[in-house]
Structure formats: structure tokens, C-alpha cells
Amino acid sequence: MNGLRQLIDGGGRAVGSWCVTPSTLTAELLTADGVDYVCFDCQHGLVDSSTLAALLAASRREVVPIVRVPGNDGAAIGKALDLGAGGVIIPMVGSAGEAAAAVAACRYAPRGTRSYGPARAALTLGQDPADLEGHALCFVMIETPAAVERADEICGVPGLDGVYVGPADLAVGLGIRPADIEGSREHAAAVARVREACARAGIFAGIHTSGGADARRRLAEGFQLVSLPTDAVLLRGALQRELAAARGT
Question: Which entry of 31, 68, 115, 229 is 20 to 30 Å from 23 by CA?
Fold first, then answer.
């Protein structure tokens, strides 16, 4: 069974890393120090299907690899799962119908529309459709004001494992600069509304964070899955700090 599912079903909370660069060394580094999962970003990152298999192979086995696919597309979802992803995050889901389509793309017939062809997944997860399906977590992203309004409908879709909040796109949709999220009551209320809808539906609530302190705060609020900043953000932040220290600024 998916170790991330076991962790959260058992009352645990998960902290993960986020990869936007197609480097196997980066994948190894991001899974080396006790994270519960790593997400490979095929939406905004430089990762694509030609590099994804190598990144999944480079990840440590005890760390569950998740893929954010480019969109709510059955072929892209199936490809990520066939390559051995432990789950997918589907961006910009705005309705229960769209969420149901995402769930169906993760499940084989008669429950879904996923085509059977596990490719690399057969090497790590086996070939039984029930085992493969049980391993595939399905998260949809709620990241627009319209989707927030439909949060209960989306969260109530049968078979959905969780919702992942996209704070930046949600801020943009609310007319707020992503840099100003921290002081916005409207943004905080929207995020809370999604988290509470997840709790009512009994599904996992996940969110992207700006760093360790923000992740800790989100866990205290009730989120069960939190992602740290991307590898690119962490690298640039570390460089900026060291430059400032070197120059005394």
C-alpha cells in the first residue's frame, strides 16, 4: 500500500519536498533527509515525461513520489502513474465534474477510465490492477475563488483522496499579490473554507507553503500534507543569504 496513504490514514502528517528541475541529483537530494514525499512538477517546472522516469527512479524508495501533472488530462495522469508515481496532483479543478474526471483517470474500469499499461510501475508496484489502483493517490487542486465556492461539492466526489490548495493562484484570483498573502484575511478565509470542506468529507487536506515555519502553522491549522518551497526557491534563497553574509549587507 502507498506509504503516504498509510501515514495519513493512521493520523500522521506529511511534509514533502517539491522538484521543478529535471536533475536526478536534485531528486536524490530532495529525498535524502526524512521527507515523507516528493512532488515532481510537470505543470510549472521543467520536468516532463521524458525526464520523469529518471527522477522517479532516483528518489529514495521510502519517500513517496507524487507528480503534479500539467492539467486534468487522462493521458498525462495515466502516464505519471504508469511510470511509478504514488499519486497525482491535478491543477485548476473547478467543479465536482472535473474532480470526478480526475478520479476516473486514476482508476481502471469499471470504476474509471485509466488504460492498463504500468510500464515502469510494474517493476516497483507489481502488475495487479487492484494493487496499482490502490497505490494511486488522487489530489485535485482548488486554487480559484469559484472552486472555493464549490469546495464541498468537489471534496464530496467519491474516490477523491484529497485536495491540494494552491495559495498563489488563489491569491491572484482574489486580486491579491502572492507576496501579500500573509496579511490577507480574505485569502485566509478561503483557505480555511477548503480545509474545513476536506474535513467534512473525510479526505486529506494539503497545501503549498513558503517555508518551514509556514508549514508548521498549516499543520497546526489542520492540514495533513504540506509541501516546502521548490528546489529552485530554496537554492536561490540560500544563495541570497550567503551573498548577504559575505558582503555584510
Answer: 115
